[in-house]
Amino acid sequence: MFAMQHAKAAGMAADTDDDGDGVLDTADAFPLITLGGLTDTDGDGRPDVCDAACQALGMAADTDDDGDGVLDTADAFPLITLGGLTDTDGDGRPDDCDAACQALGMAADTDDDGDGVLDTADAFPLITLGGLTDTDGDGRPDDCDAACQGFRYDRRYR
Ligand SMILES: [Ca+2]
Ligand SMILES: [Ca+2]
Ligand SMILES: [Ca+2]
Ligand SMILES: [Ca+2]
Asked: What is the pLDDT of residues 46-89, one digit of tens each?
């Protein structure tokens, strides 16, 4: 298939995949270094894992293997992109996970805002408590100052 593409470009057209690794130059983090057999989950030309030999070529490992904007170190599903799904707390686990999402291997977040109060018990499941004290653990802070009311809780906390 690549050979065909090269044949097509045999005129004077520029090669759109200079290193011939299947990732087009426009999307390739390392357009002049072939991935070889290395796995590149999100197809950005940056390998998921980059060992010494890989680094010697001048490449570096991808820090967001699935390219969904959640770094591997914080991503509950580092090899499954969120796609367009909402992830309020940015942990790589979507707020809601329908059948298609589950088929990919993901599961819905049970604490969408990541404040330690599960959605089922959280008065404000999409607004994190941040550092506010919540003695009874219902997701509603003991005290809500002006900043809390205006910025975090808006009109909902009154
Ligand atoms: Ca990659
Ligand atoms: Ca990710
Ligand atoms: Ca989440
Ligand atoms: Ca919560």
From this structure: 999 999 999 999 999 999 999 999 999 999 999 999 999 999 99
Dist. CA 141 → ligand 4 center (Å)? 12
Helix, coil or strand: residue 3: helix
Report helix, strand or coil for 146: helix
The two tokens of residue 129 are 């408590």
CA 109 to chain centre: 14
CB 45 within 8 A of CB 54: no
Cα 40 to ligand 3 centroid, rounded to whole Å: 24
Q: Residues with beta carbon < 5 A to ion ligand 1?
A: 40, 42, 44, 46, 62
Which amino acid appears at position 106 of this protein?
Answer: M
Q: What CA dihedral angle connects 73, 108, 120 and 75, to 10 degrees?
A: 0
149 CA distance to ligand 1 centroid (A)?
Answer: 41
pTM: predicted TM-score of the whole model, two decimal places: 0.80
Q: Which ligand sits nearest to residue 61's alpha carbon?
A: 1
Task: Look up residue 55 and give its DSSP letter.
Answer: H
Give the containing element (helix H, strand E) for 5. helix 2-8
